[in-house]
Amino acid sequence: MSVPARDAALRPLVVTADDLGLTPGVNRAVRRAHLEGVVTATSLLAVGRAFDDAARMLRATPTLELGAHLALVGEDPPLLTAREIPTLVDRRGALPLGYRTVVARGLAGRIDPADVRRELGAQLERVAGVGLPLTHLDTHQHTHLWPVVGDVVAALAREHGVPAVRLPRARAGLVRPGVALLARRLGRALRRAGLAAPADYAGLDEAGALTRARFEAALTALARRGAPHAEINTHPGEPGDPDLGRFAWGYRWSEELDMLTDPTTRDAVARAGYRLTGFAGLA
């Protein structure tokens, strides 16, 4: 698709909604954030309880780009059994709740890349089974920043013909130096695999609290750095969704949905010098 002349000078911006498939309410919020707002792509959790509902929504919403949100952490169980992926789970077959456990196991050399490949490969196959083109891969809590996971994700993307992988960055907090080091390493791995990644990114620092003010601040910072294209990832949800009560993340799901569907948000994107696109439009 050609870009209108009036937009040709604007840089591409992908706005991704993560955690599709987490709950039916999240699925509805993501669809609304796309049809009424600025979301251009979404990332589907193969392990999410509302996966089948999300698949139906995606087939009815062909303009929403689809990627896989691969999970080695979280409240939902993996697709494979503890016997099949022993270095990724506890005795009950449960994944760790957070990325810190993945980092600790990685530092201790206790993550078998073959286990990562088996589980993430199964998850990618399930998402691919929705029957729609996959434009990108990313991971729950950005665990593919860790080298053993990132190498597997890059290999899976190349083997399955998925053209792009998220390259997260952190700009604040204690994690910034470590994330910067890991992001440089991941970027090199993606380039070696011939994969695309947005040249700049926001969403890790703002996770779960991407209010209107923080979204506009992220846009301003992205524009100031001047990369040729960028991604912002978000987490929309419905107000009062009872199914989100089992997640102690402190996310402000409905505030993000309000921000994403507010007409002034689209105006802010244009003012910052960006045009909305999906991962397929990065080229």
Features:
8 strands; alpha/beta; 8-stranded parallel sheet; TIM Barrel
Reconstruct the topology from this structure.
Blueprint: E1 11-20, H1 24-35, E2 41-44, H2 51-59, E3 65-70, H3 99-107, H4 113-128, E4 134-139, H5 147-160, E5 164-165, H6 176-192, E6 200-202, H7 212-225, E7 230-234, H8 253-261, H9 263-271, E8 274-276
Parallel strand pairs: 1-2, 1-7, 1-8, 2-3, 3-4, 4-5, 6-7
Structural class: alpha/beta
CATH architecture: Alpha-Beta Barrel
Q: How confident overall, as mean pLDDT?
A: 95
CATH topology name, in short, is TIM Barrel
User: Strand tally, please?
Assistant: 8
Low-pLDDT segments, ≥5 res: none
* Number of domain modules: 1
Count of helix runs: 9
Main sheet overview: 8 strands, parallel
Q: Cα distance, first to last residue?
A: 12 Å
General form? globular
What's the gyration radius in Å? 18 Å
Which percent range describes the beta-strand content? 5-15%
What's the CATH C level? Alpha Beta
Task: Explain the overall architecture.
The structure is a single chain. With 283 residues, the protein is an alpha/beta fold. It has one domain (5-281): Alpha-Beta Barrel (TIM Barrel), CATH 3.20.20. It has helices at residues 24-35, 51-59, 99-107, 113-128, 147-160, 176-192, 212-225, 253-261, 263-271; strands at 11-20, 41-44, 65-70, 134-139, 164-165, 200-202, 230-234, 274-276. Strands 1, 2, 3, 4, 5, 6, 7 and 8 form an 8-stranded parallel beta sheet that branches. α1 links the parallel β1 and β2 (41-44). α1 packs parallel to α2 (51-59) and α5 (147-160) packs parallel to α6.
